[in-house]
Amino acid sequence: MSSENFNHLILLIGTNPLPNFVVADYFLQHNQNIQTISLIHSEPNPLQAGTNSQAENLERLLRERWEDKLQSLQFPLSKIPLSDVSHARSIQNDIHEFMMEKLENADGVHLNYTGGTKSMSTHLYWILKSTEELKRRPSFSYLDARNFRLVDDDRDELIADDLRKNIDLTFEELIALHGFERINKPSTADFSEAAKTFRELIENDQLHLFYEDGGYDRNIFENKNKKGEFAESKSQLDREKINVFDPNDVFQSVISKMPEEYRLFDEKGSFNWDMSKRQFKKYFKKSVRFLGGTWFEEYVESMVENGLKNKPLKIETNWVIKKPDWPAKADFELDVLLLHGYHFTGISCTTHDKKDLCKNKGFEIIHRTRQIGGDEAKAVLITFLDNSVKDMLQWELVYETGGKDNILILGNEDLKADRLVSEIKKFVFGE
Q1: What DSSP designation does 136 have?
Q2: Contacts from 98-106 at CB under 8 Å and sequence distance 24+?
Q3: How far is 247 from 132, CA to CA, in rounded Å?
Q4: 22, 136, 146, 267: which has the highest count of C-beta atoms within 10 A?
Q5: Quick check: 124 and 138 in contact, CB under 8 A?
Q6: Where are the alpha helices (H) located in 6-152, listed in sequence order?
Q7: 336-365 pLDDT, tens per residue?
Q8: Region 404-429: what's the mean pLDDT?
Q9: Average pLDDT score over the chain
Q10: What's the whole-number mean pLDDT along residues 65-74?
């Protein structure tokens, strides 16, 4: 039976529901006969972690996509809990008790066994294969996640090649599929002109001047009573330290291109002590954060967006993400987000030039991209490291995480626009 000639689709739900969505969305696009979808998931109990929440997230997204488009598709979807995903007899008992009777009248059954455990896929495959009560011989497929291909398991041939061209997600849909939500709003401040100044500095090999005497110094913006924290009011600033600070020309060139309300220094280099309490609270911290590093995110986003504008790529910056049930301050931030179809790449930008600090950032972005996009998600860390140190860090992260093809470290010799875009293009698109 053709892998697209059935009306009952069975999916195995593991910890990452993205492959299940890709498979379901593809078949729903190409098979209008599908009426029922069964989601087989692990039941939460002392023996195992449950994947019922992943099944619910998947159902929610499929409902949003397909309930109005394909009215023959039945919602809610059928969810089948397995009490012990490692025990053959238990799997067989649960499948026979909760699902097999429903399949007897199905006009064709198809199992995609990409998700779930090996035990789940193996035992369900043989249960379906050996069941004589089915009207028609079942069909099987799997998602070759590394190559983004859907493969017919019966014929060992492609059903679809490079599903990134067929399956499209928004960033909101992708994170919701994994139970996350964005908790910050997009910034309305326009720092694009200031970011252009940083591009000029990088292209002219002058970026170092921004950090030399009279350049950016985090210390002068910190709370004088709490080292490491930015001031929350003018009274918390060290007035003497700021008044003796003499901004250099490069620092001033950046300040002059920032939105007027965010300029902390005037044309003569004097700090704007005339800010009201409201103005300080609204603009100070965001201004200092831009000078301290968010300029780097904006620069990277701008270069990638312009350099890859002919590519099918969604780009966002500065998303703060968490799960609704996480405690306060348990959120995490993604600097730059890329989405090619459904394939996610997360970029972390840091102005650090010390390997240990960058390595921590590397572990973080690798972990977060996998949380959002699964094992096939890609992670990029853009740093100020020298070439030799960058190469060593790349090797260490690959060795310690096992992610050879999914990790890219860039350093200070990769920052110019042409090279930066070329490296990211090659990494994301393989060209």
Answers
A1: S
A2: 99/38, 99/40, 100/127, 100/131, 100/133, 102/8, 102/36, 102/38, 102/78, 103/8, 103/131, 103/133, 103/134, 104/133, 104/134, 104/135, 105/135, 106/6, 106/7, 106/8, 106/36, 106/134, 106/135
A3: 82
A4: 22
A5: no
A6: 18-30, 52-66, 88-98, 100-103, 118-130
A7: 999 999 999 999 999 999 999 999 999 999
A8: 96
A9: 93
A10: 94
Helix, strand, coil: what percent of the chain each, to 5? Answer: 45, 20, 35
Neighbouring CB atoms inside 10 A of 133's CB total 9
- Upstream peptide bond of 247 is cis (omega within 30 degrees of 0): no
Token pair 């790449």: residue: 345
Distance CA 412, CA 421 (A): 14
DSSP conformational letter for 184: S
DSSP single-letter state for residue 316? E
Task: Write down all domains in the chain, each with its CATH number in brackets.
Answer: 8-166 (3.40.50.10770), 192-292 (no CATH), 297-429 (3.40.1350.10)
H-type helices in 231-336, by residue range?
A: 239-243, 249-257, 277-279, 285-289, 295-307
Q: Which amino acid is at 147?
A: N
**Do 406 and 362 meet the contact criterion of CB atoms below 8 Å apart?**
no
**How large is the angle between the packed helices 88-98 and 118-130, nearest 10 degrees?**
50
| Overall residue count recorded for the chain in this entry | 431
Nearest to 258 by CA among 210, 217, 295: 295
What H or E segment, with its residue span, contains residue 15?
none
